[in-house]
Amino acid sequence: MRSNLALFSIFLLSxxxxxxxxxxTRNTKVEIKGNQFLINDQPTYPGRVWKGNKIEGLLMNSRxxxxxxxxxxxxxxxxxxxxxxxxxxxxxxxxxFVGQMPIWKSFGLLSFTINLQGGSPFGYxxxxxxxxxxxxxxxxxxxxxxxxxxxxxxxxxxxGMVPIVGLFYFGQDEVLQDEQAVIHAVENAIDWILxxxxxxxxxxxxxECNVRYDHExxxxxxxxxxxxxxxxxxxxxxxxxxxxxxxxxxxPKENVIQSADFILLHGNGVKDPNNITAQVEATRRVEGYTDxxxxxxxxxxxxxxxxxxxxxxxxxxxxxWGFFDYRMKxxxxxxxxxxxxxxxxxxxxxxKGFFELLKEITGY
Length: 364
Fold this sequence. Notes:
The structure is a single chain. It contains nine helices and 13 strands. The longest helix has 21 residues, at 4-24. The chain has a single domain, classed as TIM Barrel (Alpha-Beta Barrel). β2 (36-39) and β3 form a beta hairpin. The protein has helices spanning 4-24, 90-106, 143-159, 179-195, 223-232, 254-259, 273-284, 310-316, 349-362, and strands at 30-33, 36-39, 42-43, 49-50, 53-54, 61-63, 111-115, 162-169, 202-207, 241-243, 263-266, 294-298, 322-323. Keywords: Signal. This is Cellulase (Glycosyl hydrolase family 5). Residues 1-22 form the signal peptide. InterPro entries: GH.
């Protein structure tokens, strides 16, 4: 009869073999060279030019932050009931998300932002009584959330897509009890992604660091400390590329510009597309900027049928652009990618407008 030690050794070797196999079979790797994104050693949208504007090297994206959403508050969960079943189902939400990913990719969408604490399921909101966090109060990982995340990251790796994984969202960061819990959460999440072997993931430390965060380390003056923490976490010599974002129209501060691998901007509140150009130009003038790629990963301005809109303005300034859509007053279930429950299909006029222009710009 084998000893317990021998049995444990066999189990450990089997686990390591499976882990090594999973990592060796990853399909997609993202890199940055100069101001361009590369996927599997090739610039994105290779050779593509649209209306005289270089598209090669950009990373067009959409805000899809609710892909692993759940609500741990029994008092508010009724808000997210599906219209057909009158119940909320987090696994259905993720399954339907994954089912749409190949369709998004077919239009030229190479990236999407997903957040471990989601976003406002109403689009915008002051109070957030719901509890949607992949972290416990001490910064440990909630297994159910990461199981759902794994399904999405696996599919993205299969499809050649580059998810931007956000760690924290204002209104939910107070779930974590103190600064040490925030640090612990960052370490745990980054280590989980690295040890799963993903090489296609970008990190956004927090969504809009200058908006209502409780913990000082998540606020503009100190958020670079967490950017540096992410950069120091390594597995088999690899690390993850990382940044953070600010509220709409804001130009990032020097500490973030100097630490971030790429620069995240938001276009919320920027009604004049010419001000998108001005925001990009101002960002490039910040001290310490070294030609990192500039990416809008949230903008709720549309007018996709107009020659000049925020999407085309960002593109002309050689900045990647990200679609932010939520269900507005009196709109149906098909509208909005941030409002829960989510219809992840391309079934509203706004969604169709974005994806049609995306396809035209990227040449897919």
